[in-house]
Amino acid sequence: MTDLKNGSVKQANLNLSRTEIIERSLAKRYRAEKRFRCYGIMAIVFGLMCVALLFTDIISKGYKAFAQTYIQLEVTYDANILGITDLNDPQQVALGDFQGIVKQALKNRFEGVSGRKAKRELYGVISNGAGYRLRDRLVANHQLLNQSETLWLVADDDIDTYYKSMGSDAGPFVGRMSEQRQGWIEQLTEADEVELRFNRNFFVQGDSREPELAGIRGAAMGSLFTLIITILLSFPIGVAAAVYLEEFAPRNRWTDLIEVNINNLAAVPSIIFGLLGLAIFINFFHVPRSVPLVGGLVLTLMTLPTIIISSRAAIKAVPPSIREAAIGVGASPMQVVLHHVLPLAMPGMMTGAIIGMAQALGETAPLLMIGMVAFIVDVPGGFTDPSTVLPVQIFLWADSPERAFMEKTSAAIMVLLAFLIVMNTLAVILRKKMERRW
Amino acid sequence: MQTANLFIVLLVLSAVAYYMARGRSVALAQPLGGIRHLHSLPFFYGMRAAIWCALPSMALLAVWLLFHEHIISTLLLDGLPEAQKPTSAAEHNLLLNSIENIASGALSAETSAPHLVAAADVLKDLRGTARNLVTAVVLSLAVIGMGWGWVKVSPKLRARQQVERVFRGLLLACACVAIFTTVGILLSVLFESLRFFQAVPATEFLFGTEWSPQMAIRSDQVGSSGSFGAIPLFVGTLLISFIAMLVAVPVGLMSAVYLAEYASPRVRGLAKPALEVLAGIPTVVYGFFAALTVAPFLRKAGEGVGLEVSSESALAAGLVMGVMIIPFISSLADDVINAVPQSLRDGSLGLGATRSETIKKVIFPAALPGIVGGVLLAVSRAIGETMIVVMAAGLAAKLTANPLETVTTVTVQIVTLLVGDQEFDSPKTLAAFALGLMLFVVTLVLNFIALRVVKKYREQYD
Fold this sequence. Notes:
The complex is a heterodimer of chains A (438) and B (462). With 438 residues, chain A is mainly alpha-helical. In chain A, 66% of the residues lie in helices and 5% in strands. With 462 residues, chain B is mainly α. In chain B, helix 7 (231-262) packs across helix 10 and helix 14 (410-418) packs across helix 15. The relative contact order of chain B is 0.09.
């Protein structure tokens, strides 16, 4: 009532004109308008919060994996413990008990540890991989035999987790750590004989059951080989198919069938492509399992629709005047396409190809079906070496019970996301730079 | 010769063929008074020879690569004495495997049966001969093609037409890969599913409510007869997809509406790509997020209010899947909202409607078919989504509609059944293909309807 401006209240009550009805409902309508607008903002904010939450969660969980706990020890290359008399004999070196000298070094550092259980705990402070490092050093420098040197050695993953969480508000994460072990770490911390260093292992090693030794190199190389196969096959085939459909295909049933197929394949769940790879490539054509070759074949089929659709859009964007001019000076249809349309459409096609590759790089499900989920320690060196890929490595680590693997998983996700961001930025830049207004 | 080397040699040969035929065409044109007296440009004469050199030989090589395993093993088994020929398919594979292992040195020849060692030697022989034979045939085919391409060069030869016809054929073949893929998918899931339905009746699979595919090794063990009623899987899949849609549809739609109708160009330019980041994140990352962040959080929140929340609840997987689908719905909805003609908006605003009324009463109805199509596509994506549910949903096939409990989905079961060691005779493995068939058919139908709806709508305003 109060928003009626002129005229008496009584009169308004008795005889409402149309304008007045509208005016009276205005406040309510404006409120509804505001509410609706608010819902929109809330939806956007929710979406953006999800993005922010996802990234902060992953980064806060994973950034610590780029550092690794190292412990300083004085190691003696005792020939008796090693069982090595002649360093030039590769068999002796291979069989040498390098872990034994690490144990000896630990025993020297913490005197008075007795009992089998306590000793086992003590020996577990340093990672199992330390022995290999000592062997490499000794092989590189024969003079070291029977000498001592002070080295920083990689700590075990439990120690690593404990040491990294020592400064946190919730107190250190104890987990499987016994009180005795915690005491040792305290001693080492006070003596400044333990520190965090850049985790080089993470970038140069293959997978491992020991979190402190596990790295992403193997998976990254597997991804690289798989993507090489994928781009080599899917880009030419996709562009050729797009050229055919846009420039040569007659309007008939066959062409319609191809188009319907492409559109449907774009929406088929990726896991179905894995079933296809398993049944056709592996069981029928006997392509070996778990290798980048078969992974690349499956991902090719999966990314083809994306590439075809974006290539067609790029070809469509080339104005007909170009084609007509070329035909006018006597080019054959094939020359029109190869000499004029394709070069002009190339930036758009490449953008599509990069986006397709980004999709292939992040894909996991179909690769599980074709056995790229095996535990593989060696870094693959070619297209037919068993390997895994980055997303599958993430999946495998996420399933591992050790707490230290959670950190590694997040770090691997960060690496994967970094690659994806680079690829997508490249696609955006390419589109912006090469985009042509006709 | 190794296949890769052979391939490189073929490429080199075709390059040689190209230059030789090209040179010959130029030389032939010289006495006539220049290349304008040739029917085609020298390039096409060269290409024609290169095609003759490469195409037949590479086709033969490809066919050989596809079928050589088959041919060699058939020859090998035919050569075996009658008594040692395998009688069943399983025996057949076992025999081939052991011969293969001896030949490659994985099994020591001394400890193996002598007839197998002999067979392994035969296998090595066969392989050597076959490789030499194929190399010889492929190379001579290439050389003959090269010669043919060279000899036929003449000013009258319609080289351009021939080359272009071959190119067109290649383009068509590439376009047909899409059809082959669909056929391949159908064949692979259909054949294995048929074998599955021979062991387990289709009615039991479609309407059974008990799912426990673990088959015992011996028939007298407990639970030896796995049961394959897929209803709990379907219900679980639908439950998780429903939760996902509950998140994705309102958020996706409202953000699309806001971005299309309210947001200033600057806000739109910032918020749209930021939302699309969600679409670029790999599903395995969402799975990790769901399993290690959302699920524990929900569990704790549930404990706080006295609710029992499973640590692999359908809710966690569904929520995260919903977040994943938000950008999918919002970009599809954005497209259809933008496709609504401006005149409809102007008309409605001119009559005095507020913006929200215009959106609700004019734009939504006009864009509805497109939105429905988009939502259907999103549903099909949710049903087929694998990694999130593999990592965050459970394995136990419970028939429940309670989102706080553990459910399992079709895709989770496919992955569980097929990852690890498999034998291709057990219904357990074949069940995965039957589930794959269901998944393929359902998503195909959804996509088909969705694309139809979207297409029909588009025709209205164009």
